Structure formats: structure tokens, C-alpha cells
Amino acid sequence: MAEHAKTETALTDYPRPSVAVDVAVLTVRHDALRVVAVQSPRGLSLPGTFLHPGERLAEAARRALSSKAGLQALDFHQIGMFDAPDRDDRGWVLSMAHGSVVPHESLANSNDIVEVEIEDGSATSPLAFDHAEMVTLSVEDMRRRYAASIDPGRLLGDAFTLLELRKLYEVVYDRELPKDTFRRHVSSALEGTGDTSTAGGGRPAEMYRRKTEISLPESAAVLFRA
Amino acid sequence: MAEHAKTETALTDYPRPSVAVDVAVLTVRHDALRVVAVQSPRGLSLPGTFLHPGERLAEAARRALSSKAGLQALDFHQIGMFDAPDRDDRGWVLSMAHGSVVPHESLANSNDIVEVEIEDGSATSPLAFDHAEMVTLSVEDMRRRYAASIDPGRLLGDAFTLLELRKLYEVVYDRELPKDTFRRHVSSALEGTGDTSTAGGGRPAEMYRRKTEISLPESAAVLFRA
Q: Complex ipTM, two decimals?
């Protein structure tokens, strides 16, 4: 970082990249994992924007979600910096990919978004730039987080049945999970609400909520390994 | 990302940051976790440099390790982008922090490096810029990786005793680990070499090596939780 510190040359005399942010907002609807895309001159792309002077990357990501997709107050985190020198034909542009997991209701007031379905961990529609790769990494990141605690994106509400939880995890991991093994792995992170649900149509099923400390036993991660 | 695509304005007409890379190289020597620092006009700092046009962040990180610290061929990965607008008083500079864990022998041919001891997860000497925070995040990242597999940085050689392995993990996690619990958690990821060691001075101790699939059972992570 001190490369030029001894010289009189200003930092701005050297070539500098543009820096952008993009956000992969993942959600589940109709038993499918989906990512939020927006229409752009390059076709479908993740909501993104250029970093402004004086701004943090997270502020730029919030601004992109708001201005490009009408989405407010979503949680997200850095996934990785995309830095291939030829990734944008307009010039030298690095982009920090961010990942977010939100319940579908959070998208209710969005404008002009397109929900692209994800299959086998990949977006099923072409996305601009290297955004498809950003989606793939965000799905991998989501799976790591879902192996560590119960539905951290709160795709389910406060109370749910074990069947609802398992069906959600089957969507996230894109495969069937054995019923008894699943129950054994998640039960220590859940507590009964005392209520039952008949939403499934069968006999009343017990309702659960996340314990305050919602970390899953690490043994659960074995179940969710690829 | 398509913010300016409709205009005739070039990307370079907008303010752009300088982008740098810094690398926190962690190692263990004399039962202490240490990070590699170099002398710079700002005092001790992590080896770092500015990203050049046409270069990937990883290439810049390799160049920094080689030119600033004389270190070649180390593995590292992105830890996070440091983006506070005032983090560098020379101007607007973002820096991608990278983390690396290497055996102390890998530092043998380095030039002019300073090994800064780490206590309670933090460097014990002041570092330039926000490099102390980079070190803290790199230590947290190292602990996550060491909870997931046996000594992935290969700080120990190919064969080691359980005592040597536990002593290493006690240095990494900065606390005592109960002998029997430790053995139970790591044993499934190890296999005996058939040899014994008397290096400890006591009765001969069995030697182990990492299994080819070196992932620890996820239950082990419980032991290493903060």
C-alpha cells in the first residue's frame, strides 16, 4: 500500500478502475429458489451501481437495491470481488458481489423486477456480465449459512411445522432430505410453540419456532454437504 | 452496473478510487500465532500494493508478497474489501484484504519481514492504515477453516502426534482444549502412520497423518466455537 508514498506523484496520476457493486437477492417462491434480476440495456442483470466518492460499498449496494429494484432495508454481505480485466467492455470495472436471502413478501413493493428461477445452483436465464457466476457463488454461500443455523434468511415465518422446514431445506439444497435424519439434526435448535397446524391437510402437525440461539449442531452440516 | 450505459460519457469521466491489495500471512512459531509485517514509510504494515491495469487482485497480491516480503508461491484468499472513504489519507483507496496460513519454514527466504505476535486475536504491534482490523478478520477466518479440517495450512508436517496437533490447535484458538474431547473430535480425520515418536521426551507416542479427505466431522466445530 505504500508503493507510491515516497514520490510526489498523486494517486490519481495512475490508472484506476471503476468500482461497482451488484447484489444477488435470493428468495423462495412456489418451491423454487429464485434470484431477483432487473432489465438493463445489457438484458437481465443483478441490481447494481457504481460506487460513489465518500460512499461505502454497503451504501452503494443499498442505493442499487432501492433505485434499480425498489427494494429497501434488505440485509446482505460481501460474497467476493469480481475482477477479470475484461469483464465489462465499457472499461476497467471491478464489482463487489453481495448476497442476500429474503422472504418473498419482502419483494412485494418492488418495481419492475424479474424473478429468475435457479436450478442446480444456477440461474435459468442468461444474465449480463459475470452475474451468473455471482448467483452461483451466492447460492453456495446461502447453503453454507443454512447448514449453520435454522433458516437464517427467515424464509419461513416465526412458526412452522417440521414438514414445512424440511421442504424449504429441500428447495435450498435442491435434493430430498431423509425425514428422520433431518428431524434429528434440526430438533435441538427448535422449540415447540404448543400450537398445531392442519395446513398440510393431514392430521394436526406440531408447530416449532427457532430457539433464540439458532445455531444448528455442527453435525447437521454433514447432512447438507454436497 | 448499467448506470451510465445510455450516455456518451466515458467511465473515466467519473471519480474512481485507487484499488489496493494487502495480505495477512499467518504462521505459528514458538507456540505463538504471528503475522508477517514489513517496514513501510507508515511504519509496520501488511505487504500490499496497488492493483495494476490488466491485473487480477490475486496477481497483485502475489506481486506484493514477492516484491515487499520476498515471499513466493503462497496460497491466499479474499477476506473482505476495506472501503472506509478516509482509510488512507493519500486519497480514495479501497483495499482487498487477503488471508494466508503458511508453515514457518515458508518464510525462510523472505527478506526484511517482521513477525508480529498475535494475542487474543489481535496484532500486538500497531500496524498502518486499517491493517490491524485485517489481521483480526484473518485470524477469525483461520479459526473457521481449522474447525472444518485438520490443519489446512499444513503448519505441521505430514506426520505428527496427537499432542503436537492439540498444542497447535491451542495456539490457533488461544485456549486450552480438553485432551479427550479433542482426540474424539479429530480422530476420524486421521490415520496412524504405524510409526511412533519420542520427541516429546515421554513414552513413544503414535504418529498420525491427515486422511486424504481431511474434513473434520462438523461436530468438531462445537469444540472450537468461541
A: 0.85
